[in-house]
Amino acid sequence: MEKINSVAILGGTHGNEFSGIYLLKKWHKxxxxxxxxxxxxxxxxxxxxxxxxxxxxLDADLNRQFRTDLLADPTLxxxxxxxxxxxxxxxxxxxxxxxDFVLDLHNTTSNxxxxxxxxxxHPMYNLMAGYVKLKMPQVNISRDEDxxxxxxxxxxxxxxxxxxxxxVGPQPQGCLRHDVLAWMEELTGHxxxxxxxYNNDQLPELPKSVEAYRxxxxxxxxxxxxxxxxxxVHQALEGNDFKPLKKGxxxxxxxxxxxxxxxxxxxxxxxxxxxxxxxxxxxxxxxSEKVTIDVYSTQ
Amino acid sequence: MEKINSVAILGGTHGNEFSGIYLLKKWHKxxxxxxxxxxxxxxxxxxxxxxxxxxxxLDADLNRQFRTDLLADPTLxxxxxxxxxxxxxxxxxxxxxxxDFVLDLHNTTSNxxxxxxxxxxHPMYNLMAGYVKLKMPQVNISRDEDxxxxxxxxxxxxxxxxxxxxxVGPQPQGCLRHDVLAWMEELTGHxxxxxxxYNNDQLPELPKSVEAYRxxxxxxxxxxxxxxxxxxVHQALEGNDFKPLKKGxxxxxxxxxxxxxxxxxxxxxxxxxxxxxxxxxxxxxxxSEKVTIDVYSTQ
Lengths: 299, 299
Fold this sequence. Notes:
Two copies of one chain form a homodimer. Chain A is α/β, with parallel strands linked by helices.
């Protein structure tokens, strides 16, 4: 079994997601809170200009810039495209990562609670999912784009040998909630504890399987003939991230007061419901299906 | 009794407060929803460039530009200072307003529910408070800066002969919640109904007195020696807008995990708790005291 010794924790990949940014400040002062005997942990503010501007990004979403071909193209020169290349100097290439583990901290305006987003596949992630659910049962575990090769992946969390995203909400952009920060702090602590126990081959007995949600697709808000939003998420669905949405359930309401129900045959589990950052692209939410992670699987 | 016939409804005074902006769009298509026999109602998007940029403002807070001396100073020329002068051409001067009533629609990220903010004094507002509480008991009525003369007032809502602010939350910036929009729509409808009944001298019997909250002061988040925020609103207070805060109750928690209690002798009723727009100035919340409005008072 490979050891996982070097860890980079990044916050502020989106400049108006404050929990990670202020946790970095906290850990800068209280580094003992993230130190573990077998780990060398570093922290970095990923998008300092976006934080200074209190925006998600200046020119482009930083967390969509880490595909290998994009990093290799020097003509892509806006701020986040440049910052991604600077981060890849620090983190190493995907082929030769300098860190064994990259932890990327995010917030959402959606009512998703504390979430562990798995974006790659490896038996280690299955064990981590089991450990996190054992220690913090309210964590929602999500699998997204984990079929992609690392080179194809555009997420910062794929710049380590291993990596995950911690995503916690609900928190308005540019705002800091105590409960949301505390969830992120606790979940990050469990992940570091897991890595320590994993390195020492001292994991406790874990649940054999845990529940997770696998991304299916993003869906758009209803638009009018001019391409402008013609409605919003129905209040019966608002805040119900990771709860079942069945055929016929209210999904949207238009500005003509028409209720639009969910029309799919498959019961789905939406998340990122009404996420403010997705308004640019008129996205309303992501749909997921419930899956089971076999904790001791070798896949 | 003066009649109130001309009404201007403004939305998007802050460009990332979406409920009013999308209600204007809705009413543009369904104007019957805001028409009343004795009223001539117009609507206007107050800060179109801030809405296009999905920001509260471009250069300065538009809702702080309506003092008479500021409007008279042509050297104050940034975007919002200019837009305020453009709006004063449309709405008339404070001395000679073109509208009998100005209704300004706002959102907050705080858990304030539907609120009616009274920023001037007149017996008509007391009757309106009684009518609104009769029809929609969950409305919180707030009195703020109502001792100021109109000329001294910097709020857009003071540009009519009469005027109020409708403030509804919680809603993240740049986001549209069905429940929050519905509250704003209902409260606006009750205000228009009230004006119609007031004009016709047909108000129903109102409660003799209603509860309200009078602004005392804004308070700052704890800051460190560098003037940076050293903590956040404690989770025991988060979301408890308009609920009592007593001496010794947890108010803040620092990044050193120290709980800072409220130390005032007077029990207060905070609102705008952890409002994202107030981070620029490190404000944590406003404190109010509970007061009673005598609905039939002639003051």
